[in-house]
Amino acid sequence: MPFESELFEAEVLAAFPAEVRIPARTVADALAASSESSPRMLVVLDDDPTGTQSVADLPVLTRWDVADFTWAFNHRINGRRQDAVYVLTNTRSLDPAEAAARNEEVVRNALAAAALEAGGAGSRLRLGFVSRSDSTLRGHYPLEPDTISATVAAVSGEVTDGVVIVPAFPDAGRVTIGGVHFMRGTGDDAGKLTPVADTEFARDASFGFANSELAKYVEEKSKGRFRADSVIVLTLDVIRAAGPDGDPQISAKAIADAIDSATDSTPIVADIVSENDLRALALGLDEAERRGKKLLYRVGPPFVRGRIGQEIRTELSGEEAYAGNTPSGAGGLIVVGSHVGVTTRQLKALVEQHSAARIVEIDVEKLLGGNSAGYLGDIVRDVVESLHSADVILHTSRLLIKTDDAAESLRIARTVSAAVVAVVNRTLKTFPPRFVIAKGGITSSDVAAHGLEIRHAIVRGPMLPGIVSLWEPVDGPAKGIPFVVFAGNVGDDESLAQVTRKLSNTF
User: Fold this and answer.
1) Is residue 1 a part of any domain in this protein?
2) Domain of residue 364, CATH code
3) Residue-level pLDDT at 401
4) Using CA atoms, how far apart are residues 488 and 204, in angstroms rounded to an integer?
């Protein structure tokens, strides 16, 4: 679909039908009906932990042994097994070979655990697999869905018919219209749309790309294995086929019909502008699967919420964040690792507003220059001493050191992340903070799994509307300490300060 250089969302949407109004309960009821004879659970392989920001009250794993899946499959929240479990793979920080190996291991162990689980009348737990990645198209594609589908086929013999690609994240301003993925403008640019390939995210050192039209993006990233004209595109004409007051099943049938020809992992991309669109898509995918289609999903954060018919959770208050636990009198720890522009602006706003906080910087050049052990020891002492009376803002220096070599850029990122993890872990073991906020996808993942040694957690809900998730660690040394996963590329300039203010006792 061709677009002019300056785009306004209202004008672009005028060419399409109005959204279909669909309550979350309609999707949940359809899922329950499909699972009546054989319970089903989505296993979400999250390439960084920020995929949890759109859901609530679901189990999260940072380890994926069979025993970990057994815990997740048996864990009950409000008396019932949940419809999805998130597995923090952190593969966006890995090279392709490592990412593929990790995806395979997760899928094999999940299938092994499911084979041991009996549901009602002795039926086995069925699994669906979701490859959750970035709403700005960064990540190991098509490697990850390829690996998942190949592993499922090797273990169970089940062949994937279609890979459904849904990067949209309307809560954070990422929408897909006419098969083109956009970022919404903010502030003075509100109402405008920018093709995602024209943003800073497309210039990512490891995962850059040139195309905003998703069919062409698929061809680009698959190096021509999937041609753009072979991609099935579910435009808003299909997603909204029922019209605003029509029967949602009309849209569901139109979607299922549109993907009926999918075979051998055919890529399927979907327009999404609103939560209603996600729910319409969920009903269509459920219909397609009931007809026998075997689907795998490559998606942005809100897809799972829509797919399982979960209501949008209102943002948590500070009191809710500490519910069931007694907050300590220590200061909180805010860890900032992301280098995207919005993160740097959020950090600046937090520092300016939170005058009581102690600022501790990890100088990346010093870290890479040698004697890192002694340097980090000084950082830990500074952080621990400060936590006795204040919140601590721990951030890496804002100068991003990178090279033209993607592998070397990843190596540098890992070195920096390892340093951040070491500081957090040694701090936790010495003087546990009141709360921890981790800003940045890879930063959040490493802080959760290694810095705080979280193995099992429950995502309780968002700290801001639709974004920024709160985890409750259920075991390990961080049990009872609220942990906030804050993606690098979401929120406005004030968002980090707003979340910190909710949890802090000195802000």
Assistant:
1) no
2) 3.40.980.20
3) 61
4) 13
How far is the C-alpha of 159 from the C-alpha of 175, rounded, in Å?
30
How far, in Å, CA of 283 to CA of 234, rounded?
A: 13
pLDDT digits (tens, 9 = 90+) for 120-160: 444 578 999 999 999 999 999 999 999 999 999 999 999 99
Residue 65: Cβ-neighbour burial (10 angstroms; 0-12, 13-18, 19+): middle
Q: How many domains does the chain have?
A: 2
Is 98 domain-assigned? Answer: yes
Please answer whether residues 93 and 49 qualify as being in contact, where contact means their C-beta atoms are separated by less than 8 angstroms: no
Name the one residue in this structure whose structure tokens are 């057994």. Answer: 70
* 296 & 405 share domain: no
Q: Which CATH number belongs to the domain containing residue 144 in this structure? A: 3.40.50.10840
Backbone angles phi, psi at 73, to 5 degrees: -70, -25
Same domain assignment for residues 220 and 340: no
| Residue 355 and residue 252 share a domain | no
* Strand, coil or helix: 116: helix
Residue 67 gets which letter from DSSP?
A: H
- Judgement on whether residues 290 and 363 belong to the same structural domain of the protein: no
Buried b (16+ CB within 10 A) or exposed e, 373-408: eeebeebbebbbebbeebbbbbbbeeebbeeeebee
Do residue 175 and residue 237 come from a single domain? Answer: yes
- Which tokens hold the place of 431? 């003087």
Within this chain, do residues 137 and 29 fall inside the same structural domain, yes or no? yes
Residue 491 has phi, psi (to 5 degrees) of 90, 170
Dihedrals φ, ψ of 496, to 5°?
Answer: -65, -40
Long-range contacts of 406-410 (CB under 8 A, 24+ apart): 406/205, 406/206, 407/95, 409/205, 409/206, 410/93, 410/94, 410/95, 410/206
Instruction: Determine the structural domain holding residue 358 and report its residue range.
Output: 320-503
Residues 301 and 378 in one domain: no
Q: Cβ(149)–Cβ(298) under 8 Å?
A: no
| Reported pTM | 0.91
For 431-471, what is each residue's pLDDT tens digit? 999 999 999 888 888 899 999 999 999 999 999 998 999 99
